[in-house]
Amino acid sequence: GVKTALIEASVAPGGGSWVSGQLMSAMIVRKPAHTVLDDLEIPYENKQNYVVVKHAGILPSTLLSHILKMPSVKLFNAVAVEDLITRDGRVVGVVTNWSLVTRAHGTQSCMDPNIMEAKVVISSCGHDGPYGASGVKRLVQIGMIKEVPGMKALDMNASEDAVVQNTQEIVPGMIVCGMEVAEAYGCNRMGPTFGAMLLSGKKAAHLAMQKLGIVTVEQRLEELIAV
Questions:
Q1: Helices in 32-96 by DSSP H: which ranges?
Q2: What is d(CA 80, CA 77) in angstroms, rounded to the nearest whole number?
Q3: pLDDT tens digits for 38-78?
């Protein structure tokens, strides 16, 4: 029952997950995130503390095939977020434009953007780069946070845990997840494993549901177990 807009600057969502982050076929998923693969019925080879999916493209394609069938979800692909909408110290939406228009700013006459207001914004723009971490970098520019310290040197195990732990509401109305968390909170750089990506996104979804006052199935089970 939650209306969700997925805004993707590229044609296909998923970033480096299509090529396992390294232009390679197989994908490494650190446990316990393999439970997400179980939910999606994605086959894998079981190792010690991780699993191997034979081709990385199976994960994003399977996820999209499930998500885009949902009547309450709409994908806006080839659409870039150019700015945030704020009101009374709170993020209340995003300013969008066609990605090609965004990249052509300065070479053409004015092309006004569109806006999407939202009760919760989840920013998952990835690690720093030409278009990375743009959500938290914009928060610095408009004075809502002091700085983006950036990632520390690589420590794969430490980073996987830290990214999930630091997935949170960074300012009122805006949740950060994925490698944008590492940029925002100075976590270690991560190698090409996708456990934290999956669990960080799942945690962000639960946080958003809590803010909307919706109790998830997992939360209800936890309450029953506690009783």
A1: 34-40, 58-67
A2: 8
A3: 999 999 999 999 999 999 999 999 999 999 999 999 999 99
Report the side by side order of strands in the sheet with 168-171: 121-123, 174-176, 168-171
What are 8's strand-pairing partners? 77
- What SS3 string covers 192-219? CECHHHHHHHHHHHHHHHHHCCCCCHHH
Are 193 and 200 within 8 A, CB to CB? no
The pLDDT tens digits for 73-106 are 999 999 999 999 999 999 999 999 999 999 888 8
What distance in Å separates the CA atoms of residue 16 and residue 33, rounded to the nearest whole number? 17
Task: Let me know: does 53 contact 27? Beta carbons within 8 Å.
Answer: yes
Candidates 123, 79, 76, 124; CA nearest to 99 is 79
What is the amino acid identity at position 149? Answer: P
